[in-house]
């Protein structure tokens, strides 16, 4: 069953969020002023775009790390068998190392973007900067910096 994140949910259903192995129940509040906060539809759409980008970046990073793991296994097999390592010359430099580096850089950039948009959305829905900071284990000042950070310039 697919759930539309923009559709109101029935009678205060409980969702769960797992962060660092800790499960937190989150009740969806769909009524009241927060649901009608100015800019929320635009911010919600922006969040969904950012969420999709971080998902793609995560998948890319996972693939790059798996490729690096395979490369380490090839290296190990060559060492164990006593074969020369000259065949590794083109494997790690520059292609594999660059792929891992690029994938992790993109993952961090997209993670930052989705967090920035999420904090803006929460703030638009009435959360205080201190509440957001407490919920995510960061300072109110860092939340303020992220909420007020300008949108990144389009690439290209």
Structural description of this entry:
With 156 residues, the chain is mainly α. It has one domain. The protein is 61% helix and 8% strand. It contains four helices and two strands. It has helices at 40-81, 89-124, 129-136, 140-148; strands at 14-19, 22-27. It has a two-stranded antiparallel ribbon with strand order 1-2. A hairpin with a 2-residue loop joins strand 1 (14-19) and strand 2. Helix 2 packs across helix 4 (140-148) and helix 3 packs across helix 4 (140-148). The longest helix is centred in the middle third of the chain and has 42 residues, at 40-81. The protein is elongated and about 65 Å long. The model is unreliable at 1-19 and 26-36 (pLDDT under 50).
Structure class: mainly alpha
Report the uncertain regions. Answer: 1-19, 26-36
Cα-atom radius of gyration: 21 Å
Indicate the mean pLDDT: 78
């Amino acid at each position: 069953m697919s759930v539309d994140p923009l559709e109101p949910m029935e009678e205060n259903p409980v969702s769960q969020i797992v962060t660092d192995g800790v499960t937190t129940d989150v009740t969806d509040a769909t009524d009241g002023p927060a649901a009608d906060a100015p800019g929320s539809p635009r911010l919600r759409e922006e969040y969904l775009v950012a969420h999709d980008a971080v998902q793609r970046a995560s998948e890319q990073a996972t693939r790059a790390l798996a490729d690096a793991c395979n490369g380490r296994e090839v290296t190990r097999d060559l060492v164990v068998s006593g074969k020369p390592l000259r065949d590794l010359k083109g494997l790690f430099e520059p292609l594999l190392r660059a792929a891992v580096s690029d994938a992790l850089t993109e993952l961090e950039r997209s993670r930052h973007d989705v967090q920035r948009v999420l904090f803006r959305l929460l703030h638009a829905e009435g959360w205080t900067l201190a509440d957001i900071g407490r919920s995510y284990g960061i300072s109110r000042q860092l939340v303020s910096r992220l909420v007020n950070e300008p949108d990144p310039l389009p690439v290209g």
